[in-house]
## 1
Amino acid sequence: MTPSRPGDTRVFGLVKRENISAAWKCSFDRVGLAEGWWGQPPEFGSTESSVTVQEGSTAKLPCVVYHLNDKSVTWLRRRDLHILTVGHHTYSADQRFQVVHAEGSNEWTLVVRYAQVRDSGVYECQVNTEQKMSRPVTLHVHDPRRVVTQSKVFVANNTASTKDGKLRVEILGPRERYIEAGSSLALTCLVTSARAPSTLVYWYHDTSLIDYNSPRGGVNLKIDRGRGETTTRLVVSAVGPGDSGMYSCVPQGSHPATVLVHVQKGELGYREARQGWEGGQ
């Protein structure tokens, strides 16, 4: 074999190193594209954009992502931008929310157990690409017990139970309350179980979860294991007009018990005062 001369592009019969590198890169790109993990960005699959369920049932919000590669899927609630799940992990204190994903599947389904009317709204399935991808899904939760009047919409029931009757929840007193601005609101919820007393009981104001350690009073929980009873008391001090609305007591595994609270300025009228007196009997 004749040694190469200065300026000769041959090196012992082989193509020069630059050409070898280019050939390898071209081959590598073709393999990567064929296998779908090189240069092919994530994309959403076709799914329903709206889900409708009855209150108390399980809602499943679909999201399909192809070519996820090393990215992750996040579910969040749009109204407060609260992150519910990231990948397989749940980041919500409300244990009714979880994501379901089978290994090797393209589906990332947000599951909402015991769906409540307050859960209605827009949820977003997001992928953490450089330019974030987002797919909205709207959840509608209907309550067949809802009563509608000319000026108010309220759930006319401060008691609830499971279908088998083994778990019962009740907010003691009347299901509609009137209270003066500046005073304290106190609600007591009794949860009775034929199995074991409930250890997880949530309070909601409209659609917002109430913090147990709220500086305005918070929530106290007392468990009587002998009687299978859990008593939880909610206190909200120095109430104002913004504290009006629905208050719900929600033990894990049951429908909520709900009362409607009206915060009024000045002295209460005779009807409101009498209702409060009768509720305390």
Note: The first strand starts at residue 43 and ends at 44.
## 2
Amino acid sequence: MERPADDFRPVHDVRPASNARHAPIASPPFRWDLVFVPTAMVRIAEDGVDTWATIRALVNQSSTMSRIAYSTFRRLDLRSFTYQGNRFTTFRVMHRNQNSTWALKINALITEALPFRPYSDPLLDDPTRDLAQDTLADPDPRANTSVDLELGGDVYPRLQRDGHVFSGIGDVNAFQTTLGYVFVGSIRNMPRH
């Protein structure tokens, strides 16, 4: 059927014609409900200071910059500076293993958006069962403990390493980083109720 010349609607217009019958849009019968987010336990210390604190970090390559919780910034008594109207702090991020000499100096935006809990409840599925504890970035990636630091895309290239391992759970993979393996992916297909 050819359209009239004065009909300027796009060919793929999803708006129903005034006299057309249409079914309501239905949601799919499933959803990816439980997703592992890449977390790591790291040590942080102010540059030039030997005392450190261990905190949980989210490894988030899609974030444009690293961020730290205002409460953590205050608790650790870090110094701040202002840049383009935002408050930042500088500190060293170190591997959770005290025998490691790896360290990375970063600038992080101080934010009230952190801390947050990555899950509503601790996750039951354990992707770590086939990996040694000392190879994990977070010894308990299923835990629902607060994330106080977000390691963003500004430092991700220095964390990334080649290699990943399928965990055997849903679509969860363990990706190698300088901090150890981080787990990413959907755990399972959850039916809608």
Note: Confidence is low (pLDDT under 50) at residues 6-33.
